[in-house]
Amino acid sequence: MIEATAAEMIHHCSLDDVSLQDSWLTIGVFDGVHRGHQEIIRRLTAGARAAASTAVVLTFDPHPAAILGGRDIKCLTTPDERAELLGELGVDVVITESFTRELSYVSAQDFVQRLKQRLGLRRLLIGYDFALGKDREGNPPRLAQIGKSLGYGVDVVQAVGDESGVYSSSAIRRLVSLGHVAEAAELLGHSYGLRGPVIHGDGRGRRINIPTANIDYPRQKVIPSNGIYACWARLNGDRLRAAVNIGINPTFTPDKHIPNIEAHFLDFDRDLYGRQVQLEFVARLRDELRFPSVQALVDQIWRDVDDVRARLGTG
Fold it and tell me: What is the three-class DSSP state of 28?
């Protein structure tokens, strides 16, 4: 299966689908494609361009820690979102390999030989703490040793961070889950996003003259904590301001457990059922609250709308 997700970038869903020559490659989960990842990708694409080679990223789904550690890991990006972000950074080919326990038993030598066969591996860029293969034997020195016999070189990229420390997907996942979306964006280098189709809700927003779009979302994604957010929404090329509620609507359904994501698009009122919406979280405005009356809720929503206008301006 091959999907085009960004201009001139090809997304393969298995290494077995690929046949390339003279590739520059980096390997990792790259969840979120944060600032640290972007430094590796920048070096990859620059080196590949200078060598007239193909810039390739090999990533995995599901997250290896979910398989090896039995953890329920909510990710910052779906495989398609990750591929799209990598394509925007200039990567030519993204391969999302299915990660299984059986794959974890493959030796570093055997796995890299497969990479050489499928990709014509010429240069491998890896992080300082990278390891692959059975028992994580494929660390940078071992991969360089294998490279001497297979004919590829290895470049090790040191840790990248800021005054708060090394950029980390797990730290960003925690920030998003706590609703700290502005802080997460600083580490990501872009706003945190959620994408999904508009689905039918209970129609309550329209009854109170504040129509909202109920947006479905991938259950494997990190969802910001319940609250009200200022977001940019992308819809078929349009960029709209949105006041977004994540939560259970405690004024009406206090016993609900699974949160909804509902967006009120400013200065926009059209039928959106079934259409895809991309939300980009800019700021958390407040907690989700239970109000003593519907009118009190309506008054607060209009204050939230004014706050969104103030935070986002005209774009």
Answer: coil
- Confirm whether 186 is domain-assigned: no
How far apart, in whole angstroms, are the C-alpha atoms of residue 286 and residue 297? 13
The string of pLDDT tens digits covering residues 213-222 is 999 999 999 9
Q: How many CB atoms lie within 10 A of CB 156?
A: 16
16-46 pLDDT per residue, tens: 999 999 999 999 999 999 999 999 999 999 9
Q: Are 57 and 160 in contact (CB under 8 A)?
A: no
The total number of structural domains that make up the chain: 2
In a domain, 177, yes or no: no
Helix axes 108-119, 140-150, angle to 10 degrees: 50
Single-letter amino acid, residue 53 = S
The answer to whether residues 103 and 68 touch, using CB atoms and an 8 Å cutoff, is: no
pLDDT in tens, 172-223: 999 999 999 999 999 999 999 999 999 987 666 666 778 889 999 999 999 9
Domain range for 199 is 191-312
In the three-class reduction of DSSP (H, G, I as helix; E, B as strand; rest coil), residue 87 is classed as helix
| Cβ neighbour number for residue 225 with a 10 Å cutoff | 17
Bridge partners of 250, per DSSP, are: none
Residue 68 shares a structural domain with residue 114: yes
Q: Are residues 17 and 88 in the same domain?
A: yes
Whats the size of the chain, residue-wise? Answer: 315
Whether 158 and 195 share a structural domain: no
Between the alpha carbon of residue 48 and those of residues 105, 140, 195, 305, the distances in Å are 30, 20, 31, 47
Q: How many degrees, rounded to 5, is the angle at CA 86 between CA 92 and CA 75? A: 140
Contact present, 29 and 59 (Cβ < 8 Å): yes
Residues 112 and 83: beta-carbon distance below 8 Å: no
Tokens 């990859």 — which residue? Answer: 44
Q: From CA 206, how far away is CA 92, in angstroms rounded?
A: 45
Residue 180 belongs to a domain: no
